[in-house]
Design brief:
heterodimer; A: alpha/beta; Rossmann fold; 9-stranded mixed sheet; two-stranded antiparallel sheet; B: alpha+beta; 7-stranded antiparallel sheet; 5-stranded antiparallel sheet; 14 helices; 37% helix; globular
Chain lengths: 267, 461
């Protein structure tokens, strides 16, 4: 099975500041890491390779330093890393990013299965995977817990719905986004790091795309008009209750009810 | 002994009544610590709030010759904070205030009931590190000092003793004294502060602590290193130390214990293909520095039989690995009906020999003895599990196994306890190992501090 995993480099901490005036993330001095959601997609890909053979490629879009997450994926077990990078992609919104990725994926190779993390910890939209599949014209399912079986060109997967799980079948080539905690991602291996020390990361730019029209990418190709970017307000307020244990217990239950953490008919 | 009505009435005059419990009002929790098998109720339980209050109680107890046991969060493992002779139990968890952060002297002043996890977080929030890192994060800092707790960073940073600069102590007669201070050096007479550390509530009652902090290292990376055999894993430790690359922690673990932790936590460990693992941590102020440090260690391990070296470098990965490590004790506990622990410390180059010996004992006595521990400092945590044994057979086997282990530890230059203390449960072994002369000196010290023998009677010596 030929598998491609789409990954992203994100800020290493959630405490990232946003420049209130320009709306740009202050990335200076902030360490970067692989989007934690992508680890589950990589693990799922490696499990499928162990079971069905084939290869696992990883691809990312970003500036030169995003190579680091590709290398890390290779240390986890991926075979090949591909970086989509071009100045004209800067400022892309979700749609433009998905389009650029779909162009890059076409150039990278032919795949039976494309896996993505469910969402990223910086953008949090959970839309890039499915949008990319639409641009590629392939079937897709989001929030997949597990790929149960591959037979011929048919995949059986377990999809996580809020209140239930659904077993679904779809045809390859297809795209799946993998649910958080779907598996236990393996750790990067130092042994592989040593072995793959000189590994070349392949680069794909605008000139390699079939659609080379600059206006379809970056700020210009983004239909979204961002008015303002700001970090969500942190609500650290705290309500203290004192009293008898029994009364407190009831009170606490009422609070949980009000906040919809529990419902009356489902205790 | 049992307290008289008028004694209880007097104590209720000097402390607010809602913080006093007597007889049946005292919860079962206060009759034991985390060790099974040693229990006893105090006659009165008092949750103290200040040095002055402790002083008044002690003054009265001294006058009336009432035994007093001090208790923190009750997470001890040797029965040290159990009121075997009844009397007064002074509980410190309401004295849980962080009083001062002195950024010029790099100290933090705290009350003894502050929990280790609260102190660790407070320090980190201010870009400092309080290095002692015992597994039980919900222990009080007073308890940590009273046992000279060690923890996982001892290889690089040392133990609790190395971070206590000064303390306020209420002596058995109620007098309040300051030992040490914010000073870094001190050559002024015997160090009473150091006598207090590790004295397990037998010499005085700590009511305030001045602790040393270090600047928070900005980066840390752990390495999880799988081995085909336990001997290979532990055998690598002296080599790692010889490299002088100063990891903060070198922990060893066996697959069996990892699987218990998986069951206990309900989540999978990132790797469990191998029978034995080392877990190392490196810290420093830049990524480059940390990488350079772990690089040579990783290479050395691979050259010396490690199956691989896994990088644990992000918060998610650290959590997956260290949350399992942190749950080992509880996980082993959950895997059996009853257990007892041996917390010996042996010279670092004798760890493999000692672990091998515990495997031999497990076979000889047909009993399960899982273990894990701080390979970097020679402190092992070895658990003797009761499983389905009858009470009589269990007691008999437990005694034989413990006896054999402490004899072996003494033979190879080890000590009875690395970090849990002696308390009630390990007294016999301490006496056997140290002999009459040393125990005699300790008893002499005890008499000078506590001539009436009222503080934590029947413990340590």
């Amino acid at each position: 099975m030929e598998i491609l995993v789409c990954i992203k480099q994100v800020p290493g901490t959630t405490a990232v500041e946003v420049d209130e005036e320009t709306g740009v993330l202050k990335r200076d001095g902030v360490e970067a890491k692989m989007n934690p959601f992508d680890l589950f997609a990589i693990e799922q890909a490696l499990l499928l390779r162990e079971k069905y053979g084939g290869k696992v490629d990883v691809i990312t879009m970003g500036p030169g330093q995003a190579e680091a997450v590709l290398r890390e994926a290779v240390w986890m077990g991926a075979d090949r890393g591909i970086l989509i990078s071009d100045r004209s992609f800067a400022g892309s919104d979700v749609a433009a990013t998905s389009y650029a990725l779909s162009q890059g994926v076409r150039k990278a190779g032919t795949y039976d299965l494309i896996l993505c993390g469910k969402q990223t910890t910086d953008g949090d939209t959970a839309q890039v995977g499915p949008e990319m599949a639409e641009f590629l014209g392939i079937e897709h399912i989001a929030n997949v817990e597990m790929v149960l079986e591959a037979e011929g060109n048919e995949l059986t997967v377990l999809e996580n719905q809020e209140n239930c799980q659904r077993q679904l079948k779809l045809f390859m080539p297809c795209l799946l986004t993998i649910e958080k905690d779907a598996n236990t991602p393996r750790l990067p291996s130092y042994k592989r790091k040593m072995k793959t020390g000189g590994l070349e990361i392949e680069r794909i730019g605008l000139s390699d795309f079939s659609d080379k029209d600059r206006r379809h990418y970056g700020l210009e190709g983004s239909p979204t008009q961002v008015e303002r970017i700001f970090p969500p307000e942190r609500n650290a307020s705290c309500q203290k209750y004192e009293g008898e244990p029994e009364k407190l217990g009831n009170l606490f239950y009422q609070v949980l009810l009000e906040k919809k953490f529990v419902s009356e008919n489902k205790v | 002994m049992s307290l008289k009505q008028e004694q209880i009435a007097y104590l209720k005059e000097i402390v607010d009544v809602p913080r006093i419990w007597t007889k049946e009002e005292i919860g079962e929790d206060y009759s034991h610590d985390e060790l099974g098998g040693v229990s006893g109720y105090p006659d009165i339980l008092i949750k103290v709030q200040s040095t002055e209050e402790v002083s008044s109680i002690m003054r009265y107890a001294y006058d009336q010759e009432i035994p007093v046991v001090v208790r923190g969060a009750g997470t001890g493992l040797v029965g040290a904070a159990v009121a075997l002779d009844g009397g007064i139990m002074i509980e410190t968890t309401l004295m849980n205030h962080i009083l001062e952060l002195d950024e010029e002297n790099l100290t933090v002043t705290v009350e003894p009931g502050v929990l280790l996890m609260e102190l660790a977080k407070f320090a980190e929030d201010h870009q400092f590190l309080y290095p002692p890192d015992p597994g039980e994060k919900s222990a009080t800092i007073g308890g940590n000092v009273s046992t000279n707790a060690g923890g996982m960073r001892a290889v690089k940073y040392g133990v609790t003793r190395d971070y206590v600069r000064g303390m306020t102590v209420v002596l058995p007669n109620g007098e309040v004294e300051e030992f040490g201070g914010k000073i870094v050096k001190n050559s002024s007479g015997y160090s009473l502060k150091d006598l207090m550390i590790g004295s397990e509530g037998t010499l005085g009652i700590i009511t305030k602590l001045i602790l040393k902090l270090v600047p928070l290292p900005e980066h840390s990376v752990s390495l999880l290193i799988p081995y085909g055999k336990m001997e290979d894993a532990i055998g690598a430790v002296p080599e790692i130390i010889r490299l002088k690359s100063s990891p903060t922690a070198i922990e060893f673990m066996e697959r069996e214990v990892i699987l218990f932790a998986e069951d206990f936590l309900g989540k999978k460990f990132p790797d469990r293909k191998s029978p034995a693992y080392l877990l190392l941590t490196f810290d420093g102020n830049s990524r480059m520095q940390v990488e350079a440090e772990y690089d040579k260690t990783a290479r050395l391990c691979l050259e010396n039989g490690a199956l691989d070296v896994f990088l644990v470098d992000t918060p998610e990965r650290k959590d997956a690995v260290w949350s399992a490590r942190g749950a080992f004790l509880e996980a082993i506990k959950a895997s059996t009906t009853e257990m007892d622990e041996c917390d010996v410390v042996v010279p670092r180059n004798k760890i493999a020999e000692f672990i091998r010996y515990t495997h031999e004992l497990a076979e000889k006595y047909h009993i399960r003895i899982p273990s894990f521990g701080h390979a970097g400092d020679g402190n092992l945590h070895i658990y003797i599990c009761r499983d389905n044994l009858e009470e009589g057979a269990w007691r008999e086997k437990l005694e034989s196994v413990m006896e054999d282990m402490y004899v072996k530890a003494a033979e190879i230059g080890g000590a009875v306890s690395g970090e849990h203390g002696i308390g009630y449960a390990k007294r016999v072994y301490l006496r056997e190992q140290l002999g009459e002369e040393q125990i005699g000196i300790m008893q002499g010290i005890k008499r000078v501090f506590d001539p009436k023998g009222l503080l934590n009677p029947g413990k340590v010596i």
